[in-house]
């Protein structure tokens, strides 16, 4: 019971992080409207680098606490954030075709993520086995 | 420039940032004599320079593209990473991954037309 609760908390934190990460796209789009290297451009650019830094740090912490598969697959949600910020902040339109296209891309990301996370976990397990048998071999000597 | 041109700039940015990831991964596999060298060496510096260039390219692309295109086009990164995996890291492309890449490409086309 408490373990499930914990998992939900981490999943929530992951989505909070992905939401924050998606703001780096908003800052990029904002920077695009400013003169290159103007003060406002630099502020937005600083914002992008700051958000990417935050993302990198917390991503490392989160993947330690949840299965890689889940973490990778949930990244597909950034497509939704892009659509949402586009509509809310930049008044972009949404069509049926765009919705279908986005859902197909997300399905692709989820399937790909599940497969590559499986491979990475297999590789990690193999290298642990390798190290263990190396250790045994040296202890035998 | 046409929307397609701006889209090409964004995808090229994704392409070069996938190269920077390959360089970083290769750098991480190497052994270094000190912690400083682990971070301040040619590979890591080149990788981060490429990464900065990629961020500028995506900003430039957003001059002509709606924000919603960003994460959609960034999904091309999965294609590039697959290619680098096959070429440099002895990874294999299984049927499910190939299907996933086809979905990503198809989805991008439907989203864009």
Taking the alpha carbons of the first and last residues of chain A, their distance comes to 47 Å
Q: What is the approximate shape of chain A?
A: extended
- Helical stretch tally of chain A: 5
Order of helices and strands of chain B: HHHHHH
By DSSP (H or I, 4+ residues per run), the number of helices of chain B equals 6
Beta-strand portion of chain B reads under 5%
Q: Tell me the Rg of chain B in angstroms.
A: 16 Å
Order of helices and strands of chain A: HHHHH
Largest interface: A-B, 42 and 35 residues
- Number of structural domains of chain B: 1
Q: What's the number of domains of chain A?
A: 2
Largest sheet entry of chain A? none
Could you give the distance between the termini of chain B? 17 Å
Quick recap:
The complex is a heterodimer of chains A (141) and B (113). Chain A is mainly alpha-helical and 141 residues long. Chain A has helices at residues 2-32, 39-65, 68-74, 78-90, 96-140.
What this model shows, in words?
The complex is a heterodimer of chains A (141) and B (113). With 141 residues, chain A is mostly helical. Chain A folds into two domains: 1-65; 67-141. Chain A is 87% helix and 0% strand. Chain A has helices at 2-32, 39-65, 68-74, 78-90, 96-140. Chain B has one domain. In chain B, 30% of the residues are buried. Chain B is mainly alpha-helical. At the A-B interface, helix 1, helix 2, helix 4 and helix 5 of A face helix 3, helix 4 and helix 6 of B.
